[in-house]
């Protein structure tokens, strides 16, 4: 449809059945007249800062009307320019970065983006403000009703991503699932011990609480 209609602007979701939004963008960037692309994503591993410092735009789900209006205003300003500068170079650089620092996403063989680009930032609600938390600062994640709690050294924030989906976005070498509702950062594990009930407990660096390891994940700590 893009080939047939030749639009000036394309809003692309990143996670789609079949080709991903990045795969589509990789094809468009090589076309004779690539459109302006606005990525739509619910996943912070796609480097929000990269979007903010490039010529393309992004909308983070759930997109507010105010944020959408700003994106449209920016697009209108570009399109009104005497010769609208299409962000080909910036888009190529962004695609390379989102693919993990290597070549741009291969259009012929779409691959799951989460596998090549582990989560780097967490956009989380903390009271009335929104925090952008580097993944290195996260001590553990815990399922919390409709939300997932993100625990760092100085407190707790909330995200809407279910822990099952979150697990797919994390580097499994750096984050260990120890319970169906808990994922802990390996770098923040101080050690383990058994409580009076015989349960294996994870002790943390920087936080006083101890986390229960369910029987399904005990083997992860054998030899510690």
From TrEMBL:
<dbReference type="GO" id="GO:0000156">
    <property type="term" value="F:phosphorelay response regulator activity"/>
</dbReference>
<keyword id="KW-0597">Phosphoprotein</keyword>
<protein>
    <submittedName>
        <fullName>DNA-binding response regulator, LytR/AlgR family</fullName>
    </submittedName>
</protein>
<keyword id="KW-0238">DNA-binding</keyword>
<feature type="domain" description="HTH LytTR-type">
    <location>
        <begin position="122"/>
        <end position="224"/>
    </location>
</feature>
<dbReference type="Pfam" id="PF00072">
    <property type="entry name" value="Response_reg"/>
</dbReference>
<dbReference type="GO" id="GO:0003677">
    <property type="term" value="F:DNA binding"/>
</dbReference>
<dbReference type="InterPro" id="IPR001789">
    <property type="entry name" value="Sig_transdc_resp-reg_receiver"/>
</dbReference>
<dbReference type="Pfam" id="PF04397">
    <property type="entry name" value="LytTR"/>
</dbReference>
<dbReference type="InterPro" id="IPR011006">
    <property type="entry name" value="CheY-like_superfamily"/>
</dbReference>
<feature type="modified residue" description="4-aspartylphosphate">
    <location>
        <position position="13"/>
    </location>
</feature>
<feature type="domain" description="Response regulatory">
    <location>
        <begin position="1"/>
        <end position="76"/>
    </location>
</feature>
<dbReference type="InterPro" id="IPR046947">
    <property type="entry name" value="LytR-like"/>
</dbReference>
<dbReference type="InterPro" id="IPR007492">
    <property type="entry name" value="LytTR_DNA-bd_dom"/>
</dbReference>
């Amino acid at each position: 449809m893009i080939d047939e209609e030749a639009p000036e602007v394309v809003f692309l979701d990143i996670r789609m059945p079949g080709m991903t939004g990045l795969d589509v963008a990789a094809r468009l960037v090589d076309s004779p007249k690539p459109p302006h692309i606005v990525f739509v994503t619910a996943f912070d591993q796609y480097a929000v800062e990269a979007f903010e410092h490039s010529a393309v735009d992004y909308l983070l789900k759930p997109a507010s009307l105010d944020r959408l209006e700003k994106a449209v205003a920016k697009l209108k300003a570009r399109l009104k320019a005497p010769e609208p500068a299409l962000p080909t170079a910036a888009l190529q650089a962004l695609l390379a970065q989102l693919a993990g620092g290597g070549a741009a996403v291969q259009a012929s063989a779409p691959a799951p983006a989460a596998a090549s680009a582990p989560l780097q930032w967490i956009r989380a609600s903390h009271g009335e403000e929104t925090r952008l938390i580097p993944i290195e600062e996260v001590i553990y994640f815990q399922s919390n009703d409709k939300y997932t709690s993100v625990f760092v050294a100085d407190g707790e924030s909330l995200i809407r991503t279910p822990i099952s989906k979150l697990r797919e976005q994390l580097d499994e070498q750096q984050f260990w699932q120890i319970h169906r509702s808990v994922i802990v950062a390996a770098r923040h594990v101080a050690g383990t011990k058994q409580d009076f009930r015989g349960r294996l407990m994870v002790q943390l660096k920087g936080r006083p609480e101890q986390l229960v390891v369910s029987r399904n994940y005990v083997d992860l700590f054998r030899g510690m």
